[in-house]
PCI domain-containing protein
Amino acid sequence: MGTLMGPRMAESGRVAGSAPADPDPESGRSRAESDSGLCKPSLVATTDSIAQALEAKDPSESISILYRILENPSSSPEALRIKEQAISNLSDLLKQEKRAEDLRSLLTQLRPFFSVIPKAKTAKIVRGIIDAVAKIPGTSDLQISLCKEMVEWTRAEKRTFLRQRVEARLASLLMENQEYAEALTLLSGLIKEVRRLDDKLLLVDINLLESKLHFSLRNLPKAKAALTAARTAANAIYVPPAQQGTIDLQSGILHAEEKDYKTAYSYFFEAFEAFNALEDPRAVFSLKYMLLCKIMVNQSDDVAGIISSKAGLLYLGPDLDAMKAVADAHSKRSLRFFEIALRDYKPQLEEDPIVHRHLSSLYDTLLEQNLCRLIEPFSRVEISHIAELIELPVDHVEKKLSQMILDKKFAGTLDQGAGCLIVFEDAKTDAIFQATLDTIANVGKQLTMSVRRPTTRRLATSNQTLDGQHPTIDVWHPTADISDWVVQHLATNVSD
């Protein structure tokens, strides 16, 4: 161990958090290392070398040993297997040390190694390193550039299977970075290509991503169509539980957007069960959206029971506390408590676009209910007095009252000169009018059913008989005439 203490990457000389030195194009090592002569010879790729790296006390020393294992030129099956294990350990260590640039350079240095191992293993290693970079905070731009580099390399090497998956990952990163146009263009070509190859599993991922992209663009019809396509492809194959949970989560989001909160709750519940079994961090978001649905259907009292359940206790934290505060404000019909919850839990409520959109609608509903309750005793009241009672700015209250009048939530007008609200009494309608119209409608239905039955009317003739009586004859009379007569007769009685 004494000969291996010198780190390959000159870790002791690098400032923590600083970017690594530029790699030398010939050797693949950093220029600072090549110039200083600190590089060590390669190690034989054996299990003892891996154990030696794992036993090192300093992460920098372990990283140095693993790099030296990868520099070994041996290409025997055992050496290749050891190198694959070294790559996995090295990517984990670099991820723990949050050295994203080193992970990027590692992916570039491994390209000669990829030419001697199967393509499936290459795809696994590349995706593993990209995932490791993704787990380092603040590396979104680096991930995008890394994916673009790998797309170019895979296209040049004609590795279609890997390229399609890296392009799907790139589209996801572009969507998260709000570069929607570029992501949509990339997905459009990718979907056509994958459909021709009939790769169902990848097609499910791409259709799900397309649904999320259209939802971000507020195009609900296309988002629903893409989700339906994902479900159709998923029905033909076995879908992993995590992916099925993602489908259910997206389904719940779309149903909630259409105000179908009961159906959305059932989808969120299915997604929560799938993520909870896998200990996926998305479980807390599914549970949060479940509580949101309960609040939106005026069942705020159920929120406390769900949080205190066995599954809910596992995810206690700011997200559930925020939804509990909103539920309490909603059950008390208090705008002040609602605004306090929005202020105290801003990251959990306002920075979540799905929750924020529905809570905005809930806030408007609560505001309308409170305003209607306050103006009910008055026929004429100052707007400033209403604003004082509801503890909101005067201009905000005036704007909302104007909107409610236009929406016919109540009858009234605003006297802006006097700063008053004038409330009109609701015009009372006599119940007999509606009863009369219902009677006429029922008679009309009965006459329509008997339209084929002819009726007769006995009419007197102009000639008298011997006894001085006028003879009568039967005349066919249309039913429509009787209908008109009944309507006129009923109308006359109603007016009397």
Remarks:
- Residues 1-137 form one domain.
- Residues 1-38, 456-461, 473-480 have pLDDT under 50 and may be disordered.
- The radius of gyration is 38 Å.
- Strands lie at 380-382, 412-415, 420-423, 455-460, 472-477.
